[in-house]
Every structure is written in structure tokens, then in C-alpha cells.
Amino acid sequence: MDLSSIKQSVLLGDAEATIAAAHEAVAAGVSPSSILTDALIPAMEDVGNLFACGEYFVPELLMAARAMSAAVEVLRPTLARSGYKAAGTVVIGTVQGDLHDIGKRLVAMMLEGSGFDVIDLGTDVAPEQFIAAARDNDAAIVALSALLSTTLPAMESTVGALRAAALHENLRIMVGGAPVTDDFARRIGADGYAPDAPGAAALARRLVGPHGDADAN
Ligand code: B12
């Protein structure tokens, strides 16, 4: 079956059309993992490229991510039954003292579209909450967001607390948010930084890749 209508509707940010096309594909017997890997993930990669070259802006990104999330909801029950193996679990949240979550939600949606299981802890998340969620869900990655320069120290202490908890040697930490820079990420000992949601999805895939780039900045 031609999956281009799913891809196209995500690119257009049309959630209703994406849901309908995903239902149609499932009814036609297309496996949910094929819908994900052959249509949804490539669509989000295209969206990321359009964003990177300045053709798409945040509203288009948000609409595409919403359409993609809606399709993931259609596939979720069947994906679980078909034994689809996620790329890993990402625990994400905005650090303590910070209530901004629009960009973080966008990152979470892009990660989900890239095949990760995502556990979103919300905003104002204490280091202990990140540690508990990463441990309880055997997370591959913890992703921290901060939008205030005054909460950058909380990001640093969260990275420190996660390292001190020594959950497992493959745990990767990625950071982002408007005041965060590549330099800052390196300085606080994070494994990677990305400036936007498509970059975050690409970074996450690199971090869990064969070499598990411990410094993918
Ligand atoms: C919306 C908003 C709010 C909303 C938040 C609503 C919500 N649910 O999120 C409200 C009104 C609550 C708010 C409150 C405050 N805000 Co405010 N807010 C903003 C605003 C206008 C937009 C932020 C936003 O959503 N951007 C759009 C998203 C898509 O972009 P983004 O968040 O940067 O995310 C992208 C990347 O950074 C990256 N990314 C984000 N997270 C992560 C994580 C990882 C792991 C990775 C890899 C990447 C990544 O990917 C995202 C998508 O591409 C900004 C100004 C601006 N233009 O940015 C101010 C701004 C962030 N706020 C600011 C301030 C000062 C405040 C307040 C202190 C105001 C006050 N005096 O009360 C409070 C603080 C409350 C608190 N404790 O957090 C300042 C921060 C200044 C600074 N440098 O510290 C800003 C910059 C405004 C300004 N120019 O002064 N705010």
C-alpha cells in the first residue's frame, strides 16, 4: 500500500487526515512498525529538514508534530501487540523552578515520532524525580529542558545528581532550551545538546546508536 498520503498529511500538519490515513493503512493490513518507520519517521525527518532550511517555522513544526502524535495514538495498541521494539525510553522534563513546557513538549513529540517511548515528567521537575523515573523505566536517555537563565544551575545540579546516582553506564543525558548552549552542555557534563526539536530527535538516535556517542555535542 502507498503510504505517501500519511507522509503528506504529516507534512501538511493535518491531524485528521493523518488519523484517517493511518486507520486506512492498518485496515489494509500494513504493519504498524512499517507505518512508523516508512511513513511517520521519514515525514518528521522531512519536517526537520524544512525547519532547518527555514521553510518551516515553529507553528508548522507544532502542527506536524501533533499530526504525528495523533497517528502514534492510532498505532499504539497494535504496536504493543506486534512486539515493535522502541528505540529506547527517554525520560524528559523541564528542570526544577522552570514552568516552560511548549518546546519540551515539541521535543517529546518528535522523539516519539522517531520511535522512542517517552515519559514526560512535566515541568518543575526535581532531580530525584528524574532519577526515580530513569531507574524505574530503565531509561536510555534523560532529556532536560530549561528556558530561564536562572534555572541553568538546576540543570547542572540535575546532571550531577543523575551522574552521582550511577544508574547504568549507558545512560545518556541530553539538554536543551533557549539559554542552553553547546559549551554549557559540555561544561556541565551532558552527553549532548540540540538547538531544536528535530535536532533533539537526531541527537537521541545518535546517542543510542551503535557507538552510543558519549559526547555527541
Ligand atoms: C511562553 C512563555 C512563557 C509562558 C510558559 C507557558 C508554557 N506552558 O510553557 C509563561 C507565561 C508561563 C511564562 C512565564 C515566565 N517567563 Co516566559 N516565556 C515564554 C516565551 C514567550 C516563549 C517560550 C516558548 O514556548 N518558545 C517556543 C518553543 C517552541 O521554543 P523553546 O522553548 O526554545 O524550545 C525549543 C528549543 O529550545 C529546544 N528545546 C527545548 N527544550 C529542549 C530540551 C532538550 C533536551 C533539547 C535537546 C532541546 C530542547 O527545542 C524546542 C523546539 O524546537 C519566552 C520568550 C521567547 N520568545 O522565547 C519567554 C521567556 C522564556 N520567559 C521569560 C521569563 C523571564 C518568564 C518569567 C520569569 C516571567 C515572570 N516575570 O513571571 C516566568 C517564569 C515562570 C517559571 N517559573 O518558569 C524570559 C526568560 C529570560 C531568561 N533568559 O531567563 C523569556 C525569554 C522572555 C523574555 N524575553 O524575557 N513564560
Can you offer a commentary on this structure?
The chain is α/β, with parallel strands linked by helices and 217 residues long. It has 2 domains: 4-81, Orthogonal Bundle (Methyltransferase, Methionine Synthase (B12-binding Domains), Chain A, domain 1); 89-207, 3-Layer(aba) Sandwich (Rossmann fold). Helix content is 55%, strand content 10%. It contains 9 helices and 5 strands. The chain is globular, with a radius of gyration of 17 Å. The mean pLDDT is 90. Bound molecules: cobalamin.
Overall geometry: globular
Task: Work out the helicity level.
Answer: 40-55%
Strand fraction: 5-15%
Which ligands are bound? Answer: cobalamin
Order of helices and strands: HHHHEHEHEHEHEH
Widest sheet, order of strands: 2-1-3-4-5
Rg for CA atoms: 17 Å
The level 1 CATH classification of the largest domain is: Alpha Beta
What is the CATH homologous superfamily assignment of the largest domain? Cobalamin-binding domain
Terminus-to-terminus distance: 39 Å
Instruction: Count up the domains.
Output: 2
Largest sheet: 5 strands, parallel
Name the CATH architecture of the largest domain.
3-Layer(aba) Sandwich
Round the mean pLDDT to the nearest integer and report it: 90
Number of strands: 5
Please count the helical segments: 9
